[in-house]
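Quick one before lunch.
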Amino acid sequence: MKKVGILALQGSFAEHAKILEQLSQKYIFVRSKQDLENITHLIIPGGESTTLEKLLWEFDMWGHLKNKKLNIFGTCAGAILCQKLGLDIEIERNAYGAQQASFIAELDSKIFKKLQGVFIRAPKFKVQNKKIKILAHYKQAPVLVQQNNFLVASFHPELRKDTRVHAFFLTLNSD
Ligand code: GLN
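Model of the glutamine complex:
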């Protein structure tokens, strides 16, 4: 059975929770390795990837994340962590500029019409592996991609009212 968790150590976890509530999806906030044992789907929020990674090591959660094949949705900093956990893309951190250069833009996507992306010190993705599905672009660069159990966005879907990307994540199946 599907059990959803939101990593709640740092970053925009409360905003992800609001989206799940709009979807009437139950969730737990994940703050320990015991919490990780009880879920099939994990959202890793935006925030600061260096801090998040440090906390995951400190709380002895990194190894569990690496070994347990959870469905993981990483947004922004969360996407950077997904790459470190095995997602086969290259990442350039902060490639869209500093905090003050944050912006909202409409993305190009066949699946999600008129999807808007909020970019805050966002990473740029480079995708070479042909098996990776690119679900949205911004100015020709992939910004929403999926590989098996990983879904990552360089933007912040949790900061808009649009629930479609989260709903899509919830359809991913762990096998
Ligand atoms: N620039 C941040 C990092 O590298 C990510 C920013 C964000 O999540 N909004 O971790």
